Structures are given as C-alpha cells and as structure tokens.
Amino acid sequence: MELQRRAADTTPMTTDGDRPVPPPFGRALCAMITPFTDSGALDLDGAQRLADRLVAAGCDGLVLSGTTGESPTTTDAEKSALVTAVREAVGSRAALVAGVGTADTRHTVELALAAEKAGADGLLVVAPYYSRPPQDALEAHFREIADACGLPLALYDIPGRTGTRIEPDTLVRLADHPRVVAVKDCSYDLLGTQKVMSRTGLAYYAGCDEQILALYALGAAGYVSTVANVVPGLFRALLDAFDAGDTGGAARLQRRALALIEPMMAAGLPGTVTTKALLGALGLPSGPVRAPLRAADRETTAALLAAWRGLTSGAAQFQA
To answer: Which residues are tagged catalytic?
Structure first.
C-alpha cells in the first residue's frame, strides 16, 4: 500500500526495547481546519482541495475534526462526511486520523465506529473534558473505546484545555493495549514525556508547534501541527535537517518558525481563528468559524499575512 511505503520511507525510528517501530501515521501531520462556506455550511469541495494541497506539500497525514477542525461545533454526520470526502481526495497518499474524543464514552465510541466506516486510518481521542474523571476512570474510558473498534488510537494529552492530565503512569498502563499506539502531546511536561517514551513503545507526536524540535530530539515520531496548514513544508524540512545530522539547521528552522507560531498560537485568539484568517487571506479554502468563536479582525489578519510573507520570503517550499 502506498501509505505504508511512504511511512516507512520517511521514518526516523522510535524503539520498543531494541525493536524499531515506524510511526503509525507517518511523521509530518497537519491538524487540518474544517472549511465552511460563507453561510457556515460544511465545504467538502474546499476540504478536498486543501487536503490535496497539504499532502502534495509533504504532509504524511491529516488530523480531521480535531480542535483546529472545530470538532465541538460540527455534527456527527459532518464529521463522517469530512472523512469520506478527504479520503476520496487523497486516496492512500496520506493517513487520515479522525478526532472522535468527547466527554461521553458512549458518544466517543459511536464517533469512532463511524470514522472507521468512513475510511479513517486512526483515531485521535482527547481526554474527557469538563467532568475531570480520575485516572482509573480515564483509563477505563480509553480501553472501552479501543476495545470497541479496529482502528489504532492516538491519545491526546492537552490538560490546558481539558482540565484533566493523562498521567504518565496511566499512559504506561494503556500502552499494553494493542490498539493504543500513539500520544499527541500538549502536556508541556518533558520529564513525564520522557518517562513514558522510555517505558513504552508509544509513538509520540508533538502537538505544540513550538516544541516540535524539542520532542523530536528526544525521540518523538513526529508532529501534529496547526501552523502546517499555512506552511506545510517548514516543519517537514526541520525533521529532514535533523535526520541528516544538521541539528543547527533544524534549530534555525524552529526559531524561524516562531515568527509565525507566536502570532498564530499565542496572540490571545484560538489557533483555529488565526489559521482560517490567514488561509482566507491567501485565497485558500477556509471560510468562517462557527460560534462561539469569532473571526479575526482586519488588523490581526494583516499582521498574520505580514508574518507569513516574512517567513516564506525566498522559501517557496514552505508555502501552503
């Protein structure tokens, strides 16, 4: 299968003891936005065009209906339709990982089964939010989802949004499940991350753009990037430089990326809002955000476009 060959060809290996393990979803993943029409309807044609563009620019995989993809405000039917449409567009050229996490175990299982039927290759399952279950309940939640479907799971640890940390010991226990294969890490806990990586074969993906190089240097499989929506080649080039032994070049690319990471991810607006604003300014599929999110104002959009132009000037390979 083309996807399996591509993952193998682009792999820095993680290890389980002495056994090399290729990343389950490739190494360069984009947390893709969900395009909408001007009226707010799901724009499947736009999603297909954006997905094709991202894969052509070097993305091994796409995460659909994650936080960046506005999962809280898309319906179950829209989530399934998005997977089906993007699968049609990219075929076997890229892995499709569907975000299915909710605060309700039963609903998450329903979304997982629907994503599998729609053609997803894997599932991104965030820790239940708001209810803040204890670790034993959290472990049972993830195991029930993994038992219910046949797709591999990436667990999403982002306590700043969910209010619940997936503790390192919980991840170590969950690693014994054959379908729990990866972690998208937004914990900002490098010590805890290293503990899990040293004790399991879980593939770690940096989920925060400013930490891509740091986690990759520690042995992560790759990244899931929001900023990659607008510079899909940049972080791919960073990984390639590191794998070639050019650690200085990789560090320069990470620092260079901060010129766009900061206004997109740390400017007081959600990354979904800034990403859609910039994609729209570039003439690429985006559309409005759904309430309660609100669109970026003209001044913010102009600043984002200026930052993007400064970053990509003379580096067409980074561009969307």
So the answer is: 156, 184
